[in-house]
Amino acid sequence: MPTPDKRNELRAGTDGRATHDIGGLDFGDIDMSEHDLALWHKRVDAMIVLLNTKKHVFRTDAMRRVIESYGEQQYDATDYYEKWVRALRNLVLEQELISRGELEDKLAEARAVFEADGRAVADGMVPWDDIGARDA
Amino acid sequence: MQTETSAPPKFKVGDAVFIDDRASLGHCRTPVFVRGKRGVVADILGAFRNPEQLAYHRPGLPAQVLYVIRFQQKDLWPDYQGPATDELDIDIYASWLKPAETR
């Protein structure tokens, strides 16, 4: 089982804090409004329960570690489920359940299905991280 | 998730502790705003595998005792404006704790 190297992703101008370690910094008011989960949020939760809780592919600690690696700009610009779905993707690649090539093929298939169905596909891509094997 | 550990807890409820001021590499559950600060053991939660290792698919053994450390907010923030009695509780693993003298 691969055991990746430890590293720190730092937040600029904070005297060496990790990106996520923002306790005590000024980030403005916390949004206290309630909001419903979208279907894709629930699917992310379901995949996490399957892979983490049931199949033990990775621990929650590994998901947190991956989320802490995104870099300041991405970390601040993405919401909770965007962070978590990217971590899921990174961890299945890191744990070599699938290869990047296989994932790229599946994404192209999914895109084609959506487009044939007249459903909107978001522009832009969650950035690839340097993780996992290229070939199947 | 609780795991047996061979060593008994170093600290008991009421003990004064300092959080180590060392730097961390990679995933760590001790936020910087408590490092180097003084608090008191408020509870003992049991022994758990080390998250700093679990995050990298390593076993995280031996298990470490996890404590609830209680801080006075005025000790954490130099310009704290709230009541002097405000406290903050945070879960901290044994390897980050050093004994302090009880005031």
Topology:
The complex is a heterodimer of chains A (136) and B (103).
Chain A: H1 39-54, H2 60-67, H3 72-77, H4 80-94, H5 100-116
Chain B: E1 16-19, E2 38-48, H1 51-54, E3 64-72, H2 73-76, E4 87-93, E5 97-99
Antiparallel strand pairs in B: 1-2, 1-5, 2-3, 3-4
Instruction: Assign a percent range to the helix content of chain B.
Output: under 10%
Any idea of the CATH topology of one domain in chain A?
Answer: Cyclin A, domain 1
Q: Which whole number gives the mean pLDDT of chain B? A: 94
The proportion of residues in beta strands of chain A is under 5%
CATH-defined architecture of chain B? Roll
Q: Give a short account of the largest sheet of chain B.
A: 5 strands, antiparallel
Give a verbal description of the structure.
The complex is a heterodimer of chains A (136) and B (103). Chain A is built from 5 helices and no strands. Chain A has 136 residues and is an all-alpha fold. Chain A has a domain of 78 residues: Cyclin A, domain 1 (Orthogonal Bundle). The longest helix of chain A has 17 residues. The model of chain A has no long low-confidence stretch (mean pLDDT 90). The mean pLDDT of chain B is 94. Chain B is globular and about 45 Å long. Chain B has a single domain, classed as SH3 type barrels (Roll). The longest helix of chain B has 4 residues. Helix content of chain B is 8%, strand content 33%. In chain B, strands 4-3-2-1-5 form a 5-stranded antiparallel beta sheet. At the A-B interface, helix 2 of A face loops of B.
